[in-house]
Each structure stands twice: as structure tokens, then as C-alpha cells.
Amino acid sequence: MSDIDELIAAADKDQHTKKQKARRRQSKSGLGLARKASKMWWIALVTVLAVGLIYLALHFQPISEDIVRSELTAAMDAAQSSVDEYLRINGQLPDQVPATALAGMVQYEPVGDGYRLSISMNGVTLSRDRYGEQTGTDD
């Protein structure tokens, strides 16, 4: 081998070594950027999940028993007024609660010359007869 061939081989080897080092640096810096980007995605994901859970906790709190009882009483009063109005106009008890919207919520049961109404939600049950007397107990 001549001196020129040796110089060319050394230059090729040196060039090859420089290219390998450059590739390693690029891949290491690329991995570093990928790791940073991955960490940023995790931080963003955890932040969004935390904010979402806080939102749900604050906006979907259980309804208190007093509020449930109050709403059930209002529905029961409206159903009783509907039945009493039907009785006053027609002279007889209806087959069901005349107010259609309430008929699906309030259970109506004719009993002799009167009736019984009951309604239940979230563990609270209210029952009363034609005269407004409570006929049952809470769950």
C-alpha cells in the first residue's frame, strides 16, 4: 500500500468516526428532547385530571336529605291538589294522578272513599292519605 492509499484510508476512518460521533450526539439530544416532551405530556395530563376531579367533586355533591324531602313534599302537594281537583269536578276519584307529569313520580292508590299517595327518592319515602295524614315512614 502506498502512502496515498494509507492517507485516504486514515481520512475515511477519521471521517467515519466523526459521523458516528455526530449521530450519537443527535440521538442523545433527540432522546433528551423526547424525554422532556414526554414529561411535559405527563404533567399536562395529570394537571387536566386533577382539575377535572376537583370540578366534579365541587359540582356533583350529594343532595342533602332536607332538599330531597322538600322537593318530594312539593311533588306530593301538587299531586294531591290534582287528585282533589278531579274529585271536586267529577265527583269521583280518578284512576291515576290526573297531572300526567306527576303520575310517573307519585304512586296513587284508591283506598275506600279516599286514596293514598307515596313518593320515593334517594332513600327518602313520603306517604300520605287523602286528608294529608302521613301513612308511612322514611326508608
Uncertain segments are none
**Domain count:** 2
**Cα distance spanning the termini:** 102 Å
Let me know the largest β-sheet.
Answer: 3 strands, antiparallel
Helix count from the secondary structure assignment: 3
- Estimate the strand proportion: 5-15%
Oligomer: single chain
Structural class: alpha+beta
Q: Using the CA coordinates, give the radius of gyration.
A: 40 Å
What strand line-up does the widest sheet have? 1-2-3
- Run of helices and strands: HHHEEE
Range of helix content:
55-70%
Dominant shape: rod-shaped
- According to DSSP, the number of beta strands is 3
Protein traits:
2 domains; 3 strands; 139 residues; 14% strand; alpha+beta; three-stranded antiparallel β-sheet
Structure write-up:
Helix content is 63%, strand content 14%. The chain is α+β, with helices and mostly antiparallel strands. It has two domains: 1-61; 65-129, no CATH class. A three-stranded antiparallel beta sheet has the order 1-2-3, with helices on one face.
Task: Lay out the secondary structure.
Layout: H1 3-59, H2 65-90, H3 100-103, E1 107-111, E2 114-121, E3 124-129
Antiparallel strand pairs: 1-2, 2-3
Quick description:
The chain is of the alpha+beta class. The chain has helices spanning 3-59, 65-90, 100-103, and strands spanning 107-111, 114-121, 124-129.
